[in-house]
Structures are given as structure tokens and as C-alpha cells.
Amino acid sequence: MQVELNSIWRVYNLDGLGDGLYRVLQLYIREHIVILFPLFESKTLQRPLKLNIDLLNEAIKVGNAQLSSYELPYYQLQSEDNISESYLVKRDEKYRLIIELVSDPNFLLNLVERPRSKTIPIHAKAHNTYVQNIYRALNLYWKYGQERNALLPSYMNSGGRGKSRVAGVTKRGSPIQLSSPSIEVPEGVNTTERDKVLFLKAMKEFGLKGEEVKFSRVYDKMLKEYYTEELIAAESESREALVPNYRAFVYWAKKLVPPQIRIHKQTNQGDFDRNRRGLKGSATDHTEVPGSCFELDATVLDVHIVSDFQRNHVLGRPTVYCVVDKESRMIVGLHVSMEYASWRAGRQALINSFTSKKDYCAEFGIEIDEADWPCNHIPQRLLCDRGEFICQDAENLAVPLIGHLSIAPPYRAELKGIVEHRFKILNDKLVHELLGTTKGRHYIRGDRDPRLDATLTLREITTLLIDEVLEHNSSIFEDLAKQSTLLIESGLSPTPLNYWNLHVKAQRHALSRADEAHIRSRLLPTVKVTMTGKGIRLNDQMYYESDHADFETWKVIARNNGSWKLDALVDHDNSSFIFVRLEEESGFTRCYLKKESANFAHRHQADILYFGDWIKLENNKDKPTKKSIERHQRRNQVIETAKEEAALAPSLSSKSERTKGMKARRREATLAQRVEDVEDQLRQAKPDIESDLPSEHLGDKKKKIISILKRKRVNDNES
């Protein structure tokens, strides 16, 4: 290793030199000598030392001399413009004393070869100063790098800076400033060493117990605990208590307890790691390209929603799942439901992340191109919470599909800072402006209940969130420009969409794809549906059909020979379709909702469950009414009257006589009924004429009517 001027070397076990740091002042190649200056923290003056270059090189080879560094004082590391004029004058005065010596190339060689040389005494006499003054200036010059600023005055420890002084009798500190001169100001007391001990004890006892406590509270408790006798005596003697004032306590408490210790002791480890620790870098430091890591998290939306079937029924606050690409800030997946945060809802968010968004947006009436939200990929790693994905289902189902599943520690939300910040963006830009919003705060007495303003349904909330996600993916984030040069090279604005597209196009990503049916079969649980003559039945309410060539044949078989069970995958976000294993050894086929079940199209599972619950409640409320009871009683009365009249009829000789001549009696009854119907019609049409006719005319009219009816009956029989 090459030995250079002003380089610093740490020396061990080298003959003629003590262990420590040395600065190389000069190299004399012809004499094979290197001049070293010891960098010892000592007030005594040091002299340069000579060492054979070959000996130093050998020590470097065997490791007894290692290249090191020496930190310069802060006051030397500043430009000329920031140094006061008085300091520059003093520096230049010292430099003029030694400039002739340090400019001589043979000065150091003569100094180490001839320890009793008269060069420095003669030089001191010529400048009318002391020899020690020359040596002090040379020591500073050699110690701090052989440059002019090494001679700057060092006042950093002048006046005992940083040292505590023992309090005397005279009161220190400024007195209390009052505007009224007539009011007498108490003199107060100096803070003694005993007071400092009590200050530190009070801070440990009352102020460093795992929660943030105000200094005023600690001061009050300290006086009551440790200055009880003085306070009681001062009150009884009607004088000012001789205790340290609050300002003195705060000053010494901050000095005796370093701020880093006070911050640690006034919180728990979880809160410190989340909100108080020093930041080590950016959230994207460990991700290189899009797809390296997706972050998944859930939160309860700050807005109440209503039922899609009955808008006057409030359902509460839905849960939203967000999946975000950590590198590009792209929101790649979304799921909104009434489910609580769980694996059941989390897997729906994963399915949405891994599948096409064009069809998903179309279900909510939003028409987009694939390029508007081109996220239907599987990441290299998924980072999520313990709550949803620390179960066995997630390990068995998600890990084979994704590859690596990372579970964040408890109470460490900052480890998923990207997705957490997306929730804040969605709240600030959308949710907190909606009807029924809680605005992210607890109910305050006097506030209007936000549930009374709830208006939007789950489907409408999802539609608004999709639009806001599309807006977010096209918004500018300045940090993206710092992560990659592709945006600058292409001249595109730093948006998540541009960042994603550019890296995918340049093949700088860690994304992969899978078939939709494969993704659903991996993540969704298998449920049983029934093949019936009407189609595939789910939940006894919805029927589905398929484009399979044999589907109509299976319906015929099911209607005539009985139904059978099939395996299906149900998407809780959209009831318009399901995936069914139609044959025992086949994959899952997409089946669509039939027209007769159109009321359930595009419904969320929460709406389907609400409908089922509503049916149950209506059935439970189905009790006989007053009119229903009256109809029941009237029916019983008619039956009883008929039984009584039947009992009064003359008895018959045999059972066959009761049924004999049924057809003839039926014809007579029919004719009699027709006569009665005609009479009723005539009576309603000409009530006045009929009332004036004699009885014999009415008899003739009846005969004529009967004759006509007989002819009609004969014609009926002939036909």
C-alpha cells in the first residue's frame, strides 16, 4: 500500500514507536526516511519522529500499520466567508511565525536528525517571541493537516463550556420580570447538588414510566414528595417557600435526562418503532422493480352505507382491502365488502389483484381499456398483516401461488407504509366528503349522527372508489422520479401508471401471470351447488346456466332422474357468475346468472345475505290478521250450517241411491242456475218494466225462456 503525505496510520507493535495514530508529514525517498507526527490527545508539545520507509512498508504488509483517519475540529471545516475577521487575523499571525520554517523542504529532516538544532530559537528571536510559541503553532499545523486553518483559535471549551458549576451564595439567573414596580419579587434560591439529585429522582419516578408526562405534572409531584417540610413550614410562617422554581426544574431535567432517553422512557417499544425512531431510508429501498413486493392491508371505511334493497336500512361501515405495488405505488387490487378483516375477504382482494380490471370495472358501469389499469399479475412477494394471513389457509393456498408470503410484526404498521398512506389518500380525496362519513374521528357530543345521512350503497361506494383509484394511478408522485431514470429518459410524468408501464415494457419487473380459473381454484373455497332441471342452483335463490354443449341434456336428466351436487367457486364481489366443475374430471367453467334471477345480478354477497335475512324475517312476521281470522271463522260457520241442513234431509235406502242420476241432476242444476242468471240480468236492465207486468205475463215469459233454453240444450247435445 502506498504511503502518502498527510495520510493517517494506526501503528501496533512497531519498534521505536508507541501504539497509536501518526500523520505522515514528509517523505525523503533518497534517505529512505518518513517523518511522522504522533496524534496523541495530550497537552504536552510533541516532536516529529523519523522512521525507515522499509520498516513502515514491512509493518503495513504484516498488518502492524493500518490506514486510518483523524477527524478535524468542526471550527476548521468551514469556508473563509463564515469565519469571523478576528479569528482570521489571529490565524494569519500564527501562520506568519512559521511560514518560513514549513516552507523549507529540509526543515523537518534537520529537526529529527539534529534534536538540539538552533533553527527554531534563532527564528523565535528574529520574530521577537518565545520558542514555545513557535512549537505550539507547529504542533497545531502538523496535527491538523499542515494547512493554514489548522491555526484557527479553538474556543470550543473556553469558559468551562459543558461543565456544571457548584452553586454559590449569590442568586444566579435572571429574576422574574414584572411590569408593576410596587410588587416585590421573591429572590428565589439557587439549585444545589441535592436539588439535582431530587430532580433526577423525580423524573425517574414520575416522568419516565412508559407514557408522556408534562414537566409541570412531574414538578408538582416532586414538591409534594420531596419538599413537604419546607412547603409546610413556609405556609405556617407566611413566607415564600425556598424551593427551586419551575424554570430551574425544567432546565436541569432536560440536562440530566438526555432527550433520547426521555423519548424512549415516555413511550413503549411499539410506538417508538412506529412513530418516533429515526428513519433509516425509504420504503422502497428493498424493492428494485414493480412486482418485487405487493403490500396488502384492510381498514374500515369512514362512511356508513345503506342496503341496496331498502335504502332506509343502514348496514354500517364497510371494509376496504387495498393491494399496492410497493415500488411503483400502483394500486393493483381493491375489494369492498361488509366482511370484517379476515382471510375470507383478503383472498377476494388477491383475486382482484391477479385478474383483469376491465371486466371488473364494467360490472360497475365504468368502461376502461386494459391500458388504463393494466394490473393482472402475481408478485414475487406479498407483505400483509398477521390477522388475515397467519392462518393455515393462507399458507397452503396463497404461498404456492405467490411464492413468498411476509407477515409484518404486530403493532408495526409503518412496515406497510405504502398501503397505509393509500388509505389516507382515499380518505382525504373521497371518503371524507361523502354523505354519512365519520371523517375519521369519534362521535362528539352535539354532532349529527352520520348514520342519519347515510345514502350510498355498497355498489355505489365501490364505483366511487374505483374512479378514485384510477385517478390515483394517474397522479404525480415526485418520489417516483428519484427511483428510476426511465421516466426522465422517456419524458413522461412520474405517475404510478407510467412507472409501471415503462418497467414492464423494458422487462424490468418481477411480475408473473396465471389463468383466472387457476387463480380462483387456488384461493376460493369450494362450495356445493345443485344441478336441477332449471339450471345450477345456489342458495335456493339463484340459478345459473352454462354454454357447455351438454348443459341442456343434464337439465333433462336432473328433471327426470333427480338433481345432483357439483363443486363451485363463488366470487363474493359479484354474483353474476360462478365457476363450476361440471364434470367430475374437468376444470372449472364460468357459469352465468339466468334471466329469472336477474334481480341478483352484480350483487355483492352482503346484499344476497341481506335478501335471505329479509325473507326469514318476513316469514317470521307472517301471523294471522283480524280479517284472516274472520275468514276462517266464516268458513267454519258455513261448514257447520251445511252439516246441519244435510242432517235434516230425508234418509235414503242405500248408498247407490245417493249417487244415482248424478248427470241428470247436474243438468237440472245447471238449467236452474242459468234461469236465475237471466232473471238477474233482466231485473238489473229493466227494473221498472218488470215491476208493472202482470203475473200471467211473467209466467208466459218464463215459458218462452225455458223453450229457448231447451232448444239450446238440444243443440249443445247434438254438437
UniProtKB/TrEMBL annotation:
Disordered: region residues: 646-677
Name the UniProt record assigns to this protein: Transposase
Organism: Agarivorans gilvus
Organism classification: Bacteria, Pseudomonadati, Pseudomonadota, Gammaproteobacteria, Alteromonadales
